[in-house]
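pinned: reference chain
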Amino acid sequence: MTPVAFYQVQEATPAAVDAVLPGLLQKAYETTTVLVVAPTAARAQRLDEGLWGGLGNLGPSSFLPHGTPLKGDPTRQPILLVNLEDDPDPRGHQAHPGGLRLPVVLAGAESALPPLLATVPEKLCYLFSTTPTEVERARSLYKDYKTAGYPLQYFQQEAGRWVKK
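pinned: its structure tokens
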């Protein structure tokens, strides 16, 4: 079964999740292609604009090669940003010429988890904040996936770094 990694961001806002995303994407980009699933079109657009430089701790001169299905050929993008408002089933974007993309699902886009897991990617990441609603949703998912037999990992952000719990 596909390993599922839960990443809990230290703060309680979508902006905090978005701010740590570039660091995770940069690390993943070193070895694979990535599919980021945002809950809304507005959130995906903010991420798209932010990844052109300045979002997170990579600095204003940083750049992570990425795109959206609406800009250019999505199969050529090493990091592809999609959202559930425009595409409620992102499985069609998971394929890449090099294989399946690593799905990174943001809190609020949980409906994408079952169909993406059905494609049996090498791993799936789920990012959430410390808001009570997101924590409760993550706990429920964790419990459900554990019961179903998925291998699970849980990382919590502490002092700007990820600590495996």
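why pinned: The CA atoms of residues 49 and 96 lie 23 Å apart. Strands lie at 4-8, 34-38, 79-83, 95-96, 99-100, 102-106, 124-128, 152-158, 161-164.
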